[in-house]
């Protein structure tokens, strides 16, 4: 019933993923009762409409029939749905075939009755018949043999093709190639600069030749997300060698598919959409974080600065709400060079997901001397001995830098902190954190084009956005919402 | 392609919503290019599998053909999909039928060429032909007549049936009946208490006879969410008078459907699921907030206290991430009586959505004397002259009350603040907020079984959860994660 399963099945049909076989436990029961209460569509016909093969197993307890269906499904070039008619809680005389068998433990009496039905002893309560145990124990030997065969094959391959063999091993182990990061570009100081989404696109294409395992795409926003690997075909049913995925307008499935690829291994998958649509795939982002999958999420158009698309497309609360997800590293780089470093963190982080929040609009490129994205926050510049700290992430860093200059011109001591990632900063030791944000400087102003809630952790005053956006060019909106040098200077002076 | 459209269409087919007619603008183009890149399923067959009538309009510019299809769709008892084959950017010679006509403005040259194609003048740029203007102007008269006819009908109905007529007017205007809130229950002081989800179920059923416009349901968790209105049938295709909706396992569609009902008016819709699954419907919650729809979202199992279902089902970051959504009122009541007041706020709030976060587990019922949910936060109890403030929401309020008692026994002055709703508190005037949280008491500890990020706004120290949960009974998890009287007392003493 969940929408994500429709999205994923539609794409699997489109891509003709013939090795995919679903066993649908068709027990006609959900928590509210019969599935007839809410779910009377023709499921088999739906999956056929996606381009799937659909097979039926009339008795889902008939192991031979299931095996036969799987054998039939395997050679078919389409993905297959095996509709297995089952009885939930089979054998429990009063609860079988009812919602009670889903939502509640059977209880002693019902368990005893079920055991009587099956001719099983009442003790031990958790009983494993000898023949079942023997059957499963065989799986250990069978698995050992299969693994041995596979290793022999791999060894033979490696002897015949030493270079490709080593490369395959490297990828399966998830090791990065020697010197991979020498491909990372640096961008020259440039007041006009570029959008961080554009810088991200350049990084992807700089890395692509060195990291053949880097694959990804977008939920139908490739030209906007700058996710395309040039010179590689699209991943399609007749081009599984393609590195560019067209996920369609299916953010939730995209996130789930990235997670599947990331945990399978051998590839470094990334996927892009607008930051506001992270809401559509939030369960997949959470699952990646919970399960330590190294998926890379690319979210562009990361503030009201995206302009005329208006409030439905303008993220406000998303950035902070993503920082709330445990074990997710959120990075919002301030310029092209921070974007390079953000990608370095993402590629090297193999025990959890990384998320990049990138601008649509151009931002100035700073020099690279001090860029320390990997530390989460760092001193971009001190204007004489600081008595106040201005901190920001992403597109607002250039704004506070300008404001700091103005304050400095008036003789104030100001520190400018670029704060691309909370999670990375909070992993630093106490001494480093104190060196960036000394306890004795409590006059601190945070500036971020997103919800202010949360910044109280680091700052005494916040310029944020606690309302929805508006439809206008970036500069007009930023001015209206207080993201101006004048306002930053004024708020700093209040402190 | 979006999953939510699959969820909604499946339910519409199930419910046989024959008055629903979709016009599918089938232009074969998405932002990445041809829809063939990602979307080759048989859409017509998919909708037929949902139980829809599917009709085709071969030329989507043929207004007569569209009208004919609509006339054909109307009498059919099924919802209808009209697949209208169109050409995006029709008439623009270089961009028509391409993704450029979706993602970019036409530009001057292309616009001129399109106008040449259509035989239209180049100026004015935004040109409305006279016959088009005349046709649309007629709609004003036509609408006036239709409205007049409808008003006559309504008046006649009201004369014939004065009671029902007045009731219909009341509901259409969204006015609550006189004395509706006299039906609200109060719960006696009770150390054992009850789950706030159970209290919510009692409130719904107490209000149901007085508020016939109150309708709702659950995304297949009715027995867990306590959302059922007793004595009313389910809303099904043969019982549109039913007040209980079975949305199925379709959270995103549920949220969207609630929004549709709320903005249409005449009803007060609510929908329930587990708090962790709010992630699945977050875009719908945001849309309600953005568009000022008075949808009511009931989220039970609101913390790791839900027990053995484990981390995938245990909300951690959800509560605070929902507080981040502008214009959404989030209420997490501490006991049965706060739950009553939370419902009062939700029913009375007609210009935006309200969200209730409710416990699975029993919590003590306090007396009702001080309960002031509508103010967002209030002093539940002062133990002598307070030198420290303990604050909490929901199930943690009874915990801080116990801890405060212990601190008081040791001679400390402690204030206990129940903090069910940030948004409601932040709407109070400065004087009230100062009376609850005086600036001169900075020793403040917040305790909440969710992400701590954000509580720095009000408290200097936080006992929160910044990791995923674990699978164990509520008490065991709470102990492990530091939600014990001993830990609260210790943290308070540190301050």
Question: What would your notes on this structure say?
Answer:
2 copies of one chain form a homodimer. Chain A has 18 helices and 18 strands. The longest helix of chain A has 31 residues, at 130-160. In chain A, helix 14 (397-409) packs across helix 18 (485-494). The mean pLDDT of chain A is 96. Chain A is elongated, with a radius of gyration of 28 Å. Chain A has helices at residues 3-14, 43-49, 63-73, 100-103, 108-118, 130-160, 162-173, 196-207, 222-225, 251-264, 282-291, 318-323, 336-348, 397-409, 422-426, 430-436, 474-480, 485-494, and strands at residues 21-26, 29-30, 33-34, 53-57, 80-85, 190-195, 214-218, 244-246, 268-274, 296-300, 329-331, 354-357, 362-365, 378-383, 388-392, 414-418, 444-447, 461-463. In chain A, 38% of the residues lie in helices and 16% in strands. In chain A, the strands form 5 sheets. The first copy, chain A, has a 6-stranded parallel beta sheet with strand order 8-7-9-10-12-11, with helices on both faces. In chain A, strand 4, helix 3 and strand 5 (80-85) form a beta-alpha-beta unit. Chain A has 495 residues and is of the alpha/beta class. The two termini of chain A are 54 Å apart. Chains A and B meet through helix 1, helix 2, helix 9, helix 10 and helix 11 of A and helix 1, helix 2, helix 9, helix 10 and helix 11 of B.
In short:
The first copy, chain A, is α/β, with parallel strands linked by helices and 495 residues long. In chain A, 38% of the residues lie in helices and 16% in strands.
